[in-house]
Fold:
Amino acid sequence: MAKDRFKKTPLHYIQYVALKVVCVLVSVLPYRLAVTLGRHLVGSTRFILRSRFRRTVSDIQRAFPEKSPEQARRIAVESWGNMGVIMAEFLQLSAMDVEKFKKHCRIEGIEKLRRAEGTTGGIIHIGHFTNWEAFGLAASAYGFEKAVLAQRVDNPYVDEEINRLRNIFSGTTLYSNHEDKPFFTCRRWIGRKHMVGILFDQNTISGEMWFSFMGRTAAFAPITALLAIKAQVPVFPVNVLREKDGKLVCTVYDPVLPPKEYTVDNVRQFTKTLIGYYEAWLRQNPASWLWAHNRWKREEEGNRYLAAHPEERV
Structure:
């Protein structure tokens, strides 16, 4: 089934050519102009995808009941515009040489990662905040042998192009929805004392645990906690912020050490700890998060499950 899903088709190729045209056009523009155009063009899709935008505003209001409807709408508009900024920045940054790249994107707390690289290895705990793809580029540009766990795009031509750009400075992509055993693929990578980056703030379709996230039930994959406990490696929360001049700052937090013993309860408690970082970042800068994604798609299912299994609430 997976093989058929990712089979190349003529439509896929047409989509790929369109993407390449956009990539070329964006990459030749001045940096600030590309970012500004990206923000306005993608942000304007809210007038086309009206129902999705309304859901975004509703999700923000439910997460921040203290905010007025107008405040929630402003956050939604900024968040949707940020999707265009991410695309423009990614295309621009991946076309730069390393030295020029470092003038636009830096890592604070990089010494924390350097102590783990080659000794213990570790997991980079990063979410869909500001520009997560920029940190993937930065990790390679600053000399780390990193891998990222990502979802494969259905269009194989587009997927290949995204990964070419994602690993332009070096790097490896591991697939969560194409590998038979993504846990073991990541485990082998960490066993080589390298870093693997994992985003788990997307809706999970299988292998989930249920947690309260911003006051609502959401499904989370336990892979980060499982890997950290089984391999006994630190987890490094990383948040990305954009300064007023447009430069990106990737902040590495102090490592979070996993429980010594593997139990289902320890996996659940450690996952909850990691979710706490996402909630804190979201409360500090709500517009930086990818609100367009339907994070609570399975909320009712989760509520039913927890009602039947109250012992799993944490």
